[in-house]
Write a structure and sequence with these properties.
By secondary structure, this protein is an alpha+beta fold. Helix content is about 50%, strand content about 5%. It folds into two domains: about 80 residues, Glutaredoxin, CATH 3.40.30; about 120 residues, Glutathione S-transferase Yfyf (Class Pi), Chain A, domain 2. Helix 1 packs parallel to helix 3.
Amino acid sequence: MKLYSNRFAPSPRRVRMYAAEKGLSLDVVEVDLAAGEHQAPGYRVVNPLSEVPTLELGDGTRVTESLAICRWLEELHPVPPLFGRDADERREVNRWIDRLMFRLYVPTTHVFRHTHSFWATRLQQVPAWGEQQRTTVLAEYAALDALLAEREYVAGATFSMADIVAFTSIDFGKPSGLRLGEAHAHARRWYEAVKARPSAAA
């Protein structure tokens, strides 16, 4: 399987971490987003939305959207389970994935796009919106810290896809000055534990 990826973008990193946790081998093709390679006609054939990641199968089938890719791979490779072992665990993992995507990842993306110099010539920035979204991210950091005071991992006692989503979203905040702080001791404990996993370097 071939994964069109980018080493700085959080969405393909989710897939790389997931694959590493599963022990799956992917042929990674780097797409240089800063140089605009995702906008080139050749890549538009691969992904008409000009986005990464895209997973290309041996028969030419292409799967887009990071969570769809991981959920499909989970069907093929259920062990170790990263979306839960039963209906109740899957409910919790998927609930937290949805929350984190909308309340952490998406606002973090808005902070980056509307306050970072990288985007100054790429879109019409609205700095006030970016700063408002920074407040949303920090509130979610606090909520995550409170959650992790009571459990080892985001969705419960075991590492799951919810942890991958949270970890990659938090790391994505670094270029925008978003960091877990002294007030987030429980989240920082969890973060360091996830960072120590081999998959974090994928």
